[in-house]
Amino acid sequence: MGDGQVKFQLVSEPEVNFAHVEPQFRRINTEDPDLNINLPVYSIHSNHDDPSGLKYLSELDLLHTYGLINYFGKANDIENIDIYPLLFTKGTTKLALYGLGSIRDERLHRAYLNNRVQMKRPSEATDEWFNLFVLHQNRPAHRGSHNYIPESFLDSFLDLVVWGHEHDPIPEPEHNKERGFEVLQPGSSVATSMSDGEGKQKFCYVVKVCGRRYLVEPIALRTVRPFVIEEIDLKQAGFTKTEANTDTIRLEVETFLAGRMERIIRRVEETKGPNQPKQPLVRLRVDFGDIEPLNPILFGQKFFGRVANPKDIILPLKRKAEKAQMNGHGGVSNGVSKEIKPLIELDTATIEDVLVKYFDDKSDSGLMVFNSKFLTEALRKFVNNVDESDEEMPPANGTANGRGRGAATTRARGGRARGARSLLTDSLLEFRLGMIERYFDHNLLPGMAGSRSYASNAATT
Q1: Rounded Cα–Cα distance for residues 297 and 379 (Å)
Q2: CA–CA separation, 74 vs 154, rounded Å?
Q3: Of residues 20, 45, 48, 109, which has the active-site annotation?
């Protein structure tokens, strides 16, 4: 907020860029006559504030309607994703800012494979724009071949990709030889977990663009809490358990680790900046070997008030040999991985296909109340937000497909799960009536088997 002048201009249509919000809020806050904005903030959502609920809203929707930020990059139709850029001009420089908020990686991966993600380019002076893309997804593969977005999926006309979600900072842009663009991975601004990547220097960045050239200036953050992580192998440090030192080895190890902690705290005090918190985060990953591990809570009491995490300073590590032995006892072959074939080809399959295949392959599905067809249909309606009363809704602004200038691709989010809920309710009612019928047939009214007119028959009696 402030009275300063904004020296760049938005030349694209806010009706298109902010089609995910109500019509009265389809504007940038610098054009609101009731607000004085001299440094506008443009933001996409992450995986921690992604849209949800009946109306598919994010916390950023609220901030946008209040005029505090400009929220863009929200895909209302996650099956057909069209990304329209924010177009800015300043002098002769033209910037096309593309944004895509966080989407579940498997779903977005499948959308890219099926060519359902389209990035719209400016129709005028197309080659004069500097194209910057901001996204928030897994960059390397995480526990699965589809649980990330490969850089090869992105369009080659991009100049710079700012890749969020990954916590490890890489302050220098990395060039992708295959696609021709560069990728900047800013990393997290604070330590959010006790892992190796969080111990690196944190940065914020200034990106300067002039024509088709740009410069990235990393700025080291000076108020981040100090974080030190070290890995210690007690065997390599000279500690071996024998019959002679069985009673004293744990005390010797505790003294050794306490001395290591004192050196870490002293080093942090000597190197930390004036604006950094006084108490550091410290993690000692200790391979105890044959020595009984120390109690982390009791050990941490020695440093209470001197570190920020006294209860979990020590993290005992299991040796690789022990892990292999445990896997062997657990029924997994030691050092030999078995090929696991999927039930169905996942690149084109849906979760409904997987469920149907699963139940069809089982001689006894174990389903006693609902059949597999009902379960898959209810799941489809819930996932796709389908409601019979909403399927025939006219497209936005009367256009053929709900797109175009001043139009948004809309989905009836108010019907989320109502179709599945009504289907479930009807089936439960049918099930309850069947149970009542069975009860009456076998217990109270044996002469009325096969009839459901219990109320009228009882009244006649």
Answers
A1: 45
A2: 18
A3: 48
Helical packing angle, 372-383 and 351-360, nearest 10°: 170
- Surface-to-core class of residue 19, CB atoms within 10 Å of its CB (0-12 exposed, 13-18 middle, 19+ buried): buried
Q: Kindly report the average pLDDT of the chain as a whole number.
A: 81
Q: Which of 33-37, 201-205, 363-367 has the lowest mean pLDDT?
A: 363-367
How far, in Å, CA of 169 to CA of 183, rounded?
12
pLDDT of residue 363: 61
Which residue carries 């139009």 as its tokens? 407
User: What is the amino acid identity at position 155?
Assistant: D
Q: How far apart are CA 14 and CA 324, in angstroms?
A: 57
The pTM (predicted TM-score) of the whole model is 0.68
Residue 11 pLDDT level (bands cut at 50, 70, 90): very high
CA distance linking residue 270 with residue 398, whole number of Å: 67
- Residue 329 among the catalytic residues: no
Beta bridge partners of 87: 96
Instruction: Compute how many other C-beta atoms are within 10 angstroms of the C-beta atom of residue 442.
Output: 10
Q: Tokens 């002039």 label which residue?
A: 210
Which tokens sit at 97? 């800012």
Can you give the chain as a three-state secondary structure string? Answer: CCCCCCCCEECCCHHHHCCCCCHHHCCCHHHCCCCCCCCCCEECCCCCCCCECCCCECHHHHHHHCCCCEECCCCCCCCCEEECCEEEEECCEEEEEEEECCCCHHHHHHHHHCCCEEECCCCCCHHHCEEEEEEECCCCCCCCCCCCCCHHHCCCCCCEEEEECCCCCEEEEEECCCCCCEEEECCCCCCCCCCHHHHCCCEEEEEEEECCEEEEEEEECCCCCCEEEEEEECCCCCCCCCCCCCCCHHHHHHHHHHHHHHHHHHHHHHHCCCCCCCCCEEEEEEECCCCCCCCHHHHHHHHECCECCHHHCEEEECCHHHHHHHHHHCCCCCCCCCCCCCCCCCCCCCHHHHHHHHHHCCCCCCCCCCCHHHHHHHHHHHHCCCCCCCCCCCCHHHCCCCCCCCCCCCCCHHHCCHHHHHHHHHHHHHHHHHHHHHHHHHHHCHHHCCCCCHHHHHHHC
Q: Are strands 42-43 and 203-210 parallel, antiparallel or unpaired?
A: unpaired
Q: Which two tokens stand for residue 89?
A: 């001009």
**Residue of 349 and 114 predicted with greater confidence:** 114
